[in-house]
Amino acid sequence: MKKIPDKDITKLHELERILGYYFTDISHLYQALMHKSYLNEMPELEFSDNERL
Questions:
Q1: pTM for this structure?
Q2: Inter-CA distances, 31 with 8, 15, 18, Å
Q3: Model pLDDT for residues 18-40, shown as the tens digit of each residue
Q4: Which residues neighbour 47 within 8 Å (Cβ) at sequence distance 6 or greater?
Q5: How big is the CA angle at 53 (ends 51 and 38), to the nearest 5 degrees?
Q6: What letters, b where the CB count within 10 A reaches 16 and e where it falls short, cover 18-37?
Q7: DSSP label at 20?
Q8: Cα radius of gyration rounded to whole Å, the chain
């Protein structure tokens, strides 16, 4: 399973609260917000960018 950094999980839960929508799998939200350029700077993250969606 891909690990989302704790600091990002907190922000994702806050975004869910603001949107009023709660994801069954929060990694889908994380990937939807993941830009290719960010992944180039953070190669240790094991996620695909949002262009894959």
A1: 0.75
A2: 12, 14, 18
A3: 999 999 999 999 989 887 776 77
A4: 2, 27, 30, 31, 34, 39
A5: 40
A6: eeeeeeeebbebbbeebeee
A7: T
A8: 11
Distance in angstroms (rounded) separating the CA atoms of residues 29 and 4? 11
> 29, 32, 30: which is closest to 45 by C-alpha?
30
Domain boundaries, the chain: 6-52
Write phi, then psi, for 8 (nearest 5 degrees).
Answer: -75, -35
Measured distance CA(50)–CA(32) in Å, rounded: 5
